[in-house]
C-alpha cells in the first residue's frame, strides 16, 4: 500500500503520544533505569572519552562526598608500589621483603616470609593463611597486624595460588612506608591525589601506626572516576603522567586468578575476559576502566551488604558487560 500523508500524520501522532517508546531506545536512559533499579547501588558514573554520560546518586551521600571504597584500596596501594619502583625506592617487583623491610619480620615469622617478593604481595600470592573473611576479626584485634599476618600458617608456596588476604596487602603497605619513609596517606596524597586533583582523606591506622594497607580508604565517586580514567589512559591525567605506562600495562597482565569470581588478577587489579580492569570492594564498590572501549566507570554501593560474585557483584558485572560496554 503506498504511503499517504494520512499515514505519515498518524505515525507521527502515535510517536508523540508515546514518548516513552523513543526514550526506551536511548542506551543511556536504558542504563540509567537498569542501574537505579538496583537497591544496593548508591552512585554510578560512566565516562566515554572526555564525556560523562551518566552521573547519578540515588542513595548514599552523593557524588561529592567520600565513600568507603573498601578493598578497592588494594588497587590504589598497588599503584603506590608502582610509583616507589619508578623512583627507585624499591628496586623492582622481585625485591624481597627481607631486603626491603627486614624490621617488619618478627622472630617467630612463618618460614619463607623473608623471601616473599613485592610481586608475591601485590598479587596476593604470599602462600599464608588469609586474614580476610572469618579470620578478619582476630587479625584486626591483634596487637601487631603486620607480625600477625606474617605468622599465619603456610598453605601454599611463595608465588603459588591466589589467597585473598588483606593481611598480605597490609604487609605490602608497611613495606612501602619503610622503604619510602613516608606514611601511606602522604604517599597517596602526593602521588595520586595531587596529580589527579582529588582529595584522599586520612584513614584507619594499625597499633603500630601503619595506615590500613588494603581497606578503609575513602574517595568521592567523582574521585574514583578520575582513578578509572587514569587507568584507562595508560597512567595519564590531563596530559600529566601519574603512573608509568609500563606499570599500567603490567597491571593488566593476569598473573593469577580469583578462586571466587574466576577473574584474572594482575598487579592489584582484577581483569575480566571482556577487557575490564577492575578494583573491587566489599558491598559493591567498583573502579573500572576499559581502554579499548574508552570507558571509565565508578560505582559505590551499600558498604554494609555483601556483594558476592554470584550475587550483586555478578549483577554489576552484567551491567558493565551489557549496557555500559554497549555505549562504546
UniProtKB/TrEMBL annotation:
<dbReference type="InterPro" id="IPR012338">
    <property type="entry name" value="Beta-lactam/transpept-like"/>
</dbReference>
<dbReference type="InterPro" id="IPR001466">
    <property type="entry name" value="Beta-lactam-related"/>
</dbReference>
<protein>
    <submittedName>
        <fullName>Serine hydrolase</fullName>
    </submittedName>
</protein>
<dbReference type="GO" id="GO:0016787">
    <property type="term" value="F:hydrolase activity"/>
</dbReference>
<feature type="domain" description="Beta-lactamase-related">
    <location>
        <begin position="46"/>
        <end position="307"/>
    </location>
</feature>
<keyword id="KW-0378">Hydrolase</keyword>
<dbReference type="Pfam" id="PF00144">
    <property type="entry name" value="Beta-lactamase"/>
</dbReference>
<dbReference type="InterPro" id="IPR050789">
    <property type="entry name" value="Diverse_Enzym_Activities"/>
</dbReference>
Amino acid at each position: 500500500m503506498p504511503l499517504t500523508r494520512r499515514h505519515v500524520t498518524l505515525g507521527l501522532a502515535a510517536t508523540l503520544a508515546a514518548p516513552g517508546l523513543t526514550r526506551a531506545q536511548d542506551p543511556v536512559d536504558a542504563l540509567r533505569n537498569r542501574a537505579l533499579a538496583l537497591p544496593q547501588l548508591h552512585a554510578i558514573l560512566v565516562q566515554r572519552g572526555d564525556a560523562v554520560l551518566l552521573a547519578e546518586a540515588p542513595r548514599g551521600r552523593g557524588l561529592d562526598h567520600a565513600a568507603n571504597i573498601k578493598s578497592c584500596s588494594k588497587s590504589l596501594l598497588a599503584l603506590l608500589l608502582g610509583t616507589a619502583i619508578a623512583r627507585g625506592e624499591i628496586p623492582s617487583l622481585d625485591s624481597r621483603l627481607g631486603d626491603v623491610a627486614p624490621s617488619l619480620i618478627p622472630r617467630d615469622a612463618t618460614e619463607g616470609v623473608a623471601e616473599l617478593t613485592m610481586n608475591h604481595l601485590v598479587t596476593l600470592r604470599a602462600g599464608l593463611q588469609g586474614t580476610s573473611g572469618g579470620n578478619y576479626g582476630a587479625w584486626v584485634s591483634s596487637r601487631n597486624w603486620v607480625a600477625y599476618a606474617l605468622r599465619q600458617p603456610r598453605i601454599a608456596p611463595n608465588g603459588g595460588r591466589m589467597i585473598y588476604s588483606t593481611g598480605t596487602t597490609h604487609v605490602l603497605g608497611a613495606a612501602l612506608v619503610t622503604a619510602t619513609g613516608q606514611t601511606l596517606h602522604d604517599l597517596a596524597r602526593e602521588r595520586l591525589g595531587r596529580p589527579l586533583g582529588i582529595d584522599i582523606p586520612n584513614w584507619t591506622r594499625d597499633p603500630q601506626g601503619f595506615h590500613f594497607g588494603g581497606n578503609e580508604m575513602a574517595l568521592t565517586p567523582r574521585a574514583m572516576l578520575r582513578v578509572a580514567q587514569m587507568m584507562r589512559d595508560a597512567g595519564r591525567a590531563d596530559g600529566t603522567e601519574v603512573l608509568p605506562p609500563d606499570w599500567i600495562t603490567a597491571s593488566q597482565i593476569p598473573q593469577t586468578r580469583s578462586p571466587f569470581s574466576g577473574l584474572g588478577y594482575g598487579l592489584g587489579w582484577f581483569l575480566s575476559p571482556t577487557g575490564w580492569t577492575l578494583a573491587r570492594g566489599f558491598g559493591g564498590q567498583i573502579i573500572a576502566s576499559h581502554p579499548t572501549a574508552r570507558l571509565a566507570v565508578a560505582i559505590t554501593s551499600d558498604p554494609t551488604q555483601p556483594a558476592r560474585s554470584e550475587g550483586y557483584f555478578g549483577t554489576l558485572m552484567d551491567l558493565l558487560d551489557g549496557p555500559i560496554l554497549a555505549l562504546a
